[in-house]
Amino acid sequence: MINKVEICGVNTAKLPVLKNPQMRKLFVAMQGGHTLARQELIQGNLRLVLSVIQRFNNRGECVDDLFQVGCIGLIKAIDNFDLSHNVKFSTYAVPMIIGEIRRYLRDNNPIRVSRSLRDVAYKALQVRDELVFKNSREPSLSEIAEALDVKREEVVYALDAIQEPVSLFEPIYHDGGDPIFVMDQIGDGRQSDKVWLEEIALKEAMQRLNERENSILHLRFFDGKTQMEVAEEIGISQAQVSRLEKAALKNLRKYIREEP
User: Fold this and answer.
1) C-alpha to C-alpha distance for 119 and 233, rounded to whole angstroms
2) I need a surface site. Which of 5, 55, 67, 133 has the fewest CB within 10 A?
3) Which has more pLDDT, 109 or 123?
4) Environment class of residue 16 by beta-carbon count within 10 Å: exposed (0-12), middle (13-18) or buried (19+)?
């Protein structure tokens, strides 16, 4: 079978996939004491573990080991998941699986980090998991520092010492719809709902401009070109660029203010 890949003796081509309604029924049954429902949830989410461990493939680690460690994270997520929080299980489970794998990699990391830093980092990660479970969202570093009663800078320094840089736009899981990126799991007080909505409104308003207006604004404000450079690129005078730019900005403000 071409698509057959065995990890820890598991044929990944035959792993089941659970739909959200099935997941909810199984969680209700499991929390009611049915052990078979728990086993079905584990089996039905092994693809989630496979998706997560793919991002660690370039570490040279044994895939079987990463899969087993990821399964520990999955089981913890299943045992602690709260249906009343009304979030997708994958959104809750992915950070826990990643956290379990990262802890494993840190414990087996040949680069030595001081004991005091490791202690702060481990406590910070433990508090982070507790806050995620409690609030169903990623806590900020300030919240973690407050819970530990240490300075925020100390938490940042400790975590930096044990973690490698990762792109915020790196996909960590695909569930058949939109991918979950690293940035989706990170709290940022600056990214408020208001800012998010304003960005959506701006994108929609840009789509309502005509082709020339759209092109001029992109060249001016996204590519950082001067009016003279824009004029030379699209073959009109600088004065025309200035006039069209003002008209485009005026239309943009009008479209943003319009009621949906």
Assistant:
1) 57
2) 5
3) 123
4) exposed
3-state DSSP call for residue 172?
strand
Q: Is the backbone of residue 126 left (phi > 0), alpha (psi -120 to 50) or beta?
A: alpha
Model pTM? Answer: 0.45
Residue 7's DSSP bridge partners are 10
Element (H, E) at 180: strand 180-181
Terminal Cα-to-Cα distance of the chain (whole angstroms): 52
DSSP code for 221 = I
Q: What are phi and psi of 244, to 5 degrees?
A: -70, -35
Hey, CA dihedral for 86, 91, 95, 97, is it positive or negative? positive
Residues sharing a CB contact under 8 Å with residue 137, sequence separation 6 or more, in sequence order: 187
pLDDT at position 163 over 80: no
Task: Give the SS3 label for residue 7.
Answer: strand
Length of the chain: 260
pLDDT value at residue 84: 83
Instruction: Decide: 71 and 46 in contact? Cβ < 8 Å.
Output: yes
Sign of the dihedral through C-alpha 140, 188, 51, 60 = negative
Residues near 13 by beta carbon (within 8 Å), at least 6 away in sequence = 1, 3, 4, 5
Question: Which has the closest alpha carbon to 49: 78, 20, 24?
Answer: 78
